[in-house]
Design goal:
Blueprint lengths: L4 E5 L4 H13 L5 E6 L6 H14 L3 E4 L2 H6 L3 H8 L11 H15 L4 E4 L18 E4 L9 H7 L5 H11 L2 H11 L5 E2 L4 E2 L1 H14 L1 H13 L22 H11 L10 E5 L2 E5 L14 H10 L1 H10 L14 H4 L2 H20 L23
Parallel strand pairs: 1-2, 1-4, 2-3, 4-5
Antiparallel strand pairs: 6-7, 8-9
Helix pairs in contact: 1-2, 1-11, 7-8, 7-10, 12-13
The structure holds iron/sulfur cluster (SF4).
Length: 379
């Protein structure tokens, strides 16, 4: 019988670390396999986190590296940077994620069925990386909806309404069943040449079914998947079906602190001064120190907190060729004191605006930008 593997990628960020702790503590019988895709360009705090996490989990976190990079003896980023002739990755040509994270991960998993756990929180609105390989199924334990969008689209599609109603009828009855059946039978509007279901209709339907009873919904999906070729169909039972818990940002910090693993130092906010006022900055993400997804204020943070790394990031740029980490502005340009001051002032203005709006995150507006763009790198 094929054995399903349960894998969890540790990015070095807070969410995936908290997910590993949460799953180990809550589901000790799940045989979790941990991995980390090393770009060779992470901050020291990332490597420290991996080390303390290994101590807590009592298991090694397998370091994945592309084979060709490993054979070259160079660190992964530098190997590919040379192969791409100094062309820096950017949000349109993101060779870094593909070469250093997705390909090693998919090779590591191979062709046998696997569940990949993704640390997207209940207070985030993003989907994260979904493998194109059908033997890898993503599960999102921090969210109320633990299933990927692809699974939900199939479960809620108009053509599967009868099947889903029938599965519900094996699990509940009476007025509960009547209520759920009326929701399930609601037709989703279709649009476009491919007649895709309208996402808003689908999300409304999903929210209602989750609201009625999340645990029953999970069992329905699980039974449905058993009739399809999904990795989870290899399992007799699956403990996460009975969870229904939603974990948000504060829970993540609590898990890290309570476990003793701790929060990576770069999330700690530090004061900066600009025009006689005090603002606060931090880094919002794990990943490469020169990640092009970072905000300008994070570049300022890098320059002031890790000037050596800023210098190294500068050395990758080639202004003549137009290869810079930020569009239309090199790291050399950004070093101009007037420009640094302007970035801080803009950042402070934005923070104060959030404060006056009563944002619940106040000075934490940076914190959730890690979810922007680099989804595959921070799962
Ligand atoms: S952290 Fe940024 S630079 Fe590094 S692999 Fe991910 S997207 Fe690329």
């Amino acid at each position: 019988m094929t054995k399903l593997r349960h894998v969890i990628g540790i990015s070095g960020g807070k969410d995936s670390a908290a997910l590993a702790i949460h799953l180990r503590d809550k589901y000790p019988k799940l045989e979790l396999i941990y991995y980390f895709c090393d770009t060779g360009k992470e901050l020291d705090e990332t490597y420290q986190l991996i080390e303390s996490l290994e101590g807590y989990l009592g298991k090694p976190i397998t370091k994945l590296e592309s084979e060709e990079a490993a054979q070259s003896g160079k660190n992964p980023f530098d190997f590919y940077y040379n192969s791409y002739k100094g062309y820096l990755p950017n949000n349109v040509a993101r060779w870094c994620t593909r070469k250093m994270k997705l390909e090693p991960f998919e090779k590591f998993v191979g062709d046998s069925p696997a569940v990949s756990y993704v640390g997207i929180r209940g207070d985030e609105d993003r989907e994260g990386y979904i493998s194109t390989k059908s033997n890898i199924q993503s599960i999102f334990p921090f969210r109320k909806n633990i299933w990927s969008e692809e699974v939900i689209t199939s479960v809620l599609s108009n053509s599967n309404r009868n099947e889903i109603s029938d599965i519900y009828a094996t699990l509940i009855n009476g007025s509960d069943l009547d209520r759920v059946t009326s929701v399930v039978n609601k037709e989703l509007r279709l649009f476009g040449r491919n007649q895709e279901p309208k996402r808003t209709d689908m999300m409304d339907k999903l929210d209602t079914l989750l609201y009625v009873d999340v645990v029953t919904f999970n069992h329905v999906v699980f039974k449905f998947l058993k009739t399809r070729n999904y990795p989870l169909s290899f399992e007799e039972d699956y403990p996460l079906l009975n969870d229904g818990q939603v974990l948000v940002r504060d829970d993540i910090f609590k898990i890290l602190r309570d476990s003793g693993v701790g929060v990576p130092g770069y999330y700690e906010k530090l004061d900066y001064e600009v025009n006689g006022e005090i603002g606060q900055y931090a880094r919002s993400r794990s990943g490469c120190y020169f990640c092009f997804f970072q905000q300008k204020i994070e570049w300022v943070w890098l320059y002031e907190q890790h000037p050596d790394l800023y210098q190294q990031a500068m050395e990758y740029e080639n202004e003549k060729e137009g290869f810079t980490w930020n569009q239309h502005e090199s790291l050399q340009d950004l070093l101009n004191p007037r420009r640094m001051k302007q970035i801080k002032a803009d950042h402070l203005k934005r923070m104060n605006k959030e404060k006056s709006k009563g944002s619940k995150f106040l000075i934490d507006i940076l914190d959730d930008t890690e979810s922007e763009g680099c989804t595959a790198c921070f799962i």
